[in-house]
Amino acid sequence: MRNFLLLLLFPLLSYSQTIEGIILDGELENTPLTFAHISIDGTEVTTITDFNGSFKIDLEEGTYTITIQFLGYKPKKLKGIEIKSKETYRVSESLSPISL
User: Fold this and answer.
1) Secondary structure of the chain in HEC code, one letter for each residue
2) pTM of the model
3) Does residue 55 contact residue 65 with C-beta atoms inside 8 Å?
4) Contact, 49 vs 34, CB < 8 A?
């Protein structure tokens, strides 16, 4: 029984590092950008921002590149993001529309 409980808790212990933040609309006075797509390059980890432009991703310790995209806006890459054990990395970025 004890081993079974450890197996259930293991996933919670392995992802105690977090990237969280807010994505803003650079065109509209930095209002929250709803449904922006956030992905971690080299992984299958993705999420979208909520109605407040916020997001949260739990990851293993390591160094990552984050890609932020929204249709009609210039994508943004944040390279060399170092996630340390039991820490939260905070992101606050503004996206600008693509000029034609």
Assistant:
1) CHHHHHHHHHHHHHCCEEEEEEEEECCCCCEECCCCEEEECCCCCEEECCCCCEEEEEECCEEEEEEEECCCECCEEEEEEEECCCCEEEEEEEECECCC
2) 0.80
3) no
4) yes
- Residue-range domains of the chain with CATH: 2-93 (2.60.40.1120)
Tell me if 65 sits within 8 A of 91, measured CB to CB. no
For the stretch 30-86, pLDDT in tens is: 999 999 999 999 999 999 999 999 999 999 999 999 999 999 999 999 999 999 998
